[in-house]
Amino acid sequence: MTNYQKLVCCxxxxxxxxxxxxxxxxxxxxxNFLKKHQKVITLKTNxxxxxxxxSPALQGRVMTSTSNGLKGNSYGWMHYDLLASGKxxxxxxxxxxxxxxxxxxxxxxxxxxxxxxxxxxxxNWFTPKELDTESFDxxxxxxxxxxxxxxxxxxxxxxxxxxxxxxxxxxIFSQKEIEKDLNIDLKQIDxxxxxxxxxxxxxxxxxxxxxxxxLSIWILGMFIPSENTTVIMPYKNKLALNSSxxxxxxxxxxxxxxxxxxxxxxxxxxxxxxxxxQNIIPYIGSYDSKKNILTIVKYSFKGDTTYxxxxxxxxxxxxxxxxxxxxxxxxxxxxxxxxxxxxxESSSNTRELKANEAIQHLHKTYHFEGDKADLNRISKHxxxxxxxxx
Length: 390
Description:
By secondary structure, this protein is mainly beta. It contains five helices and 18 strands. It has a ten-stranded antiparallel β-sheet with strand order 5-6-7-8-18-15-14-10-12-11, covered by helices on one side. A five-stranded antiparallel β-sheet has the order 4-9-17-16-13, with no helix packed on it. The chain has a three-stranded antiparallel β-sheet with strand order 1-2-3, covered by helices on one side. A hairpin with a 3-residue loop joins strand 11 (254-256) and strand 12 (260-264). Pfam families: DUF6786.
């Protein structure tokens, strides 16, 4: 039984049997649902057409967004049953959300998800509550941004204690900011764009070292799958695709060109892909050809090569991990499923931080809706791919 199969069996998530097929919800419906179960913050711009919902109780994560007001499409995937239950699971709570804050590594000899001396098996794997169920403090907010802070004490597999402060700011973009950042024209296109600025500070007295373990910032976004959705991973140089996370990916599931890795983000077959630093063009995206929704994620990357490795095993190269990942959810052998959803993820580099030093990571998410020809101009310019060729 795989780790995630055990997760479904052992944590009681058996209610996730296709009940989260989030196909028809509007943004307004999702907003009303979330308000029934927790306090949320709504950020707005573009006369209210561009909006997003942020949850302080769930680590300041962006739950969902829209480019067309309350009646517009809701872009983020959410686990409605789990959110409504008011209960916490033992190992992880996959609440969903378009931009959630995590910290790596997940596995290996420097993991913060396993206790020292335990086997790297599901029974011993626990998501730190600070990243899963504890709230972040709201430090400041206005109509277009909200700032969070959280003090954390984490212990890794080497029993090294990390005292850290997390600073996180979520901001929604204006039309001019999006056009400037991506160098595009948004005439006759509905849009929403936002970023999370993330920082972890070493607030302890002891410096971090590779010998005792390092940390990195990890941002994950969960989106609604469909048979019409293609995930687009641009790359450069000779491809070193990591496709071994959950076993071999059937060749027919992937299309690999000299510039892109493509797959159908339909949530029907479970696998995960990753790209290392030498392949990075700092974008990843997806396109829903039926709804004409183009999603683009842009993240900070300055050519660093030291990234934590999250594989569940003793690792020969614990600091040669991936920069960007994409996960396609799918059924497990027992018939259960965590989603379905697909993910677009990015990670920061890692460094040996002295006291009061910090690591930062910027993760930006854009959604565009409109005529395919207009979306194609954006796709060709930013992702370097013609949507007509998907």
